[in-house]
Amino acid sequence: MSAADRRTQDLSDVLGQERVEETLLWLCSIASPIGEEEAICDSVQARLSKLPSGSARRYGNSLVVPLTRRRGPKIALVGHLDTVRTENGPARIDGDRCYGSGASDMKSGLAVMIVLAETLDLSDLPCQLTLVFYAREEGPYAENELGEVLRQDPDLAGVDLAVCLEPSDNKLHLGCNGSVHAQITFEGKTGHSARPWEGNNAVTAAAGFLTELAALAPKDVEIDGLVYRTVTTVTQAKDGGRGRNVVPDKFVLNVNHRFAPTGSLEEAMAYLRGLVGDRATVEFTDLSPAAMPSATHPLVQHLMKCGVTHVEPKQAWTDVARFSALGVPAINFGPGENAQAHQKNESTSLPLVRQGYSLLRRWLTTIALGALLFTTGCSSCGKQNEEPSRDPKFDPTSDAAPRPSASAKPAAGMTPAEDRDFRTRLDPELCSEALKRVNTLHQRAPEDSALLNLVSGCLKYGNNAWYQCVLSAKTAEAADTCSRRFLRPPEETK
């Protein structure tokens, strides 16, 4: 990257940081408690419709916004539009904090997503980027609109990595625990409190169960060096009686069981049934699966190198689990303050929001290096180890691959065979092979900026002529000549 390009990028980053603060305040000024997301969905859709990338696909009060559709890994930035219902004053900025409902959870993440779409040079982005905004996250699993979005929008199942911008203080939160909510009902018999022996007290019948729960210690499970804790907690006690002088005949508890990513919903349900036994009835009211971490995924590894300072397990549940259930690796990374989520008079740190914008901007604009690693595969990257599906128009060996017409004139300085290969786009895996050859000839380190630029060029303009030329090159100078000749848009014929 030239000094002039670097100065332009630095200026764009500063302007984006300023805009992200204004956007966060704008979002916080639009009330969107769960179930009332239509207004904010309309506003976000209207704002993003001004982008040259095209219109959004809308599902209820949720949006899927494809920004780039060329080459490189497929990335989804994901955030929910709704907030919990808490007491908050008018949206405002005071010093280095923004106040308002959802400021932390998760309108700070939404602001970063929107401003990235508005400030990135989408024509030069080395990845395929999609934004997903969805409704009803703060309620039961079954009512969350992301589930319906994933069912109706087939493109999202093909994403290589989803980033959920839940509040994480710009720490990388990997995986997530699963969550089961169960209603435990103890039955008894009414009676007068003056003659309790005539009844059967449902509240005291639960005493043994509650004592056992209180004695349960968290169970630690280590995955990829991250420790997840399985815990079981009583969160509500209700319907404990009919009156102050009546022996209660029913006592209902809500028990929340959080389990590590190695467990399944079926195992969690069986565990709770076993814990209760025949002392009470068990009704499951909310079932949310866990998600394994993607710590070794090359695109996640590249994000870590872009300035992330902390990597932690996600003890709570997030929608990364929905992507994980589809076989799509997903992570939690957002600028909101975790401790401020669901708080009265919610606020968030503006320096964290600015930092989150800059980190994701850096990652998306240099993701070509992660893409290079991604196309070579890894031992724990999930679906990318499977045989990749190949689009014929990207496969130079396919009869369906685009080729110049027989009457087309060769580009200047090329033979007809070179011109044919120059106009044939390269499969990403062959791109990776050629880049390794160039790197070997130059003896460059993987993080070398010259290699990053070459990776980006290959993902955008890689063609069969460049591939054949590089593989036959014997020196670094010869490989560089191949890149100057062939690694450019087909319309450039000089």
Biggest sheet strand line-up? 1-2-6-3-7-15-8-14
Helix content: 25-40%
Nearest-integer average pLDDT: 84
Low-confidence stretches: 1-8, 375-408
List how many beta strands DSSP finds.
16
**Structural Rg:** 27 Å
Helical element count? 16
Beta-strand residue percentage: 15-25%
Approximate shape: elongated
Distance between the termini: 23 Å
Structural class: alpha+beta
Major sheet description? 8 strands, mixed
Oligomeric state of the chains present here: single chain
What would your notes on this structure say?
With 494 residues, the protein is an alpha+beta fold. It is built from 16 helices and 16 strands. The protein has an eight-stranded mixed beta sheet. α13 packs parallel to α15 (464-472) and α15 (464-472) packs antiparallel against α16. The protein is elongated. The two termini are 23 Å apart.
